[in-house]
């Protein structure tokens, strides 16, 4: 049963305290669905501030079911919703980076706007989602990788999902996934589908106590570093990249985005397995570019060129492929 709690006027920017209380009300379902929907739409039309994004994430973090993570664990995650329907780049990056010795707490979900999310593709490859969820903390500790299925860790979002579906448009909650990793990672590579939001999002991330991160967006609206051309980048902490990065910066060739267009979960899973078996091409180069950035975030390498070379070794030696098999069998 909903209450009659009112939300503040969303047509003007909210203070930190007001935003904190507003998102507590929303996530605890203490306002009506109509009130929440109107609030989210108006805020989206006005444009969210970094304070509002940070406080929404803080409220979600306070209600999540967390796990413990080893020191130095990172997340590689995109907001999704870029409309390009590419292969699962961040999922492949997670495997490659973990094969390089960096613990990866991969936060993800099933497809929302694409044909195959990380969970869908990993499931086709043989990863039991229920078991992976139950053993996430142990697998992260023992083999250096875990999949943190968002639905298992964010019960408060179940109340918001019907409202988001009814609204059927982008709201602040489309930005929340990477900001509320259940492993409480303080090192992240985050891709967002809106290049103009990169500085704003990075500011929100910094407010949340992030130690080191890169927020990236392909200039064509891709929620990862683009293998086709320039990407907008914001650096946090002691990891530093230029504000504009291209594949050339990692000594990698460029490929049209259409070269990594994905399909359903079965299609994407097959492509991912071929990649891990050593297949060259646009998918591999996109993964190498983003893995290089993640390895910089982890503090493992000093440059994108060095990161791409290390990531290539993880693929060429079969280490990433073997890690997937260990994970499935775990």
Give your account of this protein's structure.
With 330 residues, the chain is of the alpha/beta class. The chain has one domain: Nucleoside phosphorylase/phosphoribosyltransferase catalytic domain (Pyrimidine Nucleoside Phosphorylase, Chain A, domain 2, 3-Layer(aba) Sandwich), CATH 3.40.1030. It contains 14 helices and seven strands. The strands form two sheets. Strands 1-4-5-6-7 form a five-stranded mixed beta sheet, sandwiched between helices. The chain has a two-stranded parallel ribbon with strand order 2-3. The longest helix has 16 residues, at 282-297. The protein is globular, with a radius of gyration of 19 Å. In the C-terminal section; belongs to the anthranilate phosphoribosyltransferase family. Belongs to the anthranilate phosphoribosyltransferase family. It is an enzyme of class 2 (transferase). This is Anthranilate phosphoribosyltransferase. Residues 73-320 form the Glycosyl transferase family domain.
């Amino acid at each position: 049963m909903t209450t009659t709690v009112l939300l503040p006027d969303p047509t003007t920017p909210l203070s930190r305290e007001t935003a904190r209380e507003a998102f507590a009300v929303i996530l605890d379902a203490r306002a009506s669905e109509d009130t929440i929907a109107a609030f989210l739409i108006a805020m989206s039309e006005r444009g969210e501030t970094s304070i509002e994004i940070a406080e929404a994430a803080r409220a979600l973090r306070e209600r999540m079911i967390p796990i413990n993570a080893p020191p130095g664990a990172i997340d590689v995650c995109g907001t999704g919703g870029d409309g390009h329907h590419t292969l699962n780049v961040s999922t492949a990056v997670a495997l490659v980076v973990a094969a390089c010795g960096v613990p990866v707490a991969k936060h993800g979900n099933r497809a929302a706007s694409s044909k195959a999310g990380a969970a869908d593709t990993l499931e086709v490859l043989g990863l039991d989602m229920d078991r992976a969820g139950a053993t996430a903390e142990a697998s992260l500790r023992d083999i250096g990788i875990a999949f943190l299925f968002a639905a298992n860790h964010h019960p408060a979002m179940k109340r918001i999902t019907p409202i988001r579906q009814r609204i059927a448009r982008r709201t602040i909650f489309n930005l929340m996934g990477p900001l509320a990793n259940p492993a409480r990672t303080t090192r992240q590579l985050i891709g967002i589908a809106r290049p103009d939001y990169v500085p704003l999002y990075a500011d929100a991330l910094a407010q949340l106590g992030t130690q080191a991160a890169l927020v990236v967006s392909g200039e064509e609206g891709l929620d990862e570093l683009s293998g086709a051309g320039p990407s907008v980048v914001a650096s946090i902490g002691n990891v530093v990249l230029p504000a504009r990065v291209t594949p050339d910066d990692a000594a990698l060739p460029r490929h049209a985005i259409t070269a990594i267009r994905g399909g359903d979960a079965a299609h994407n899973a097959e492509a991912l397995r071929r990649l891990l078996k050593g297949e060259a091409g646009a998918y591999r180069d996109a993964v190498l570019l983003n893995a290089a950035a993640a390895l910089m975030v982890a503090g493992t390498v000093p440059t994108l060129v060095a990161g791409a070379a290390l990531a290539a070794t993880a693929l060429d030696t079969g280490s990433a492929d073997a890690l997937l098999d260990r994970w499935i069998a775990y």
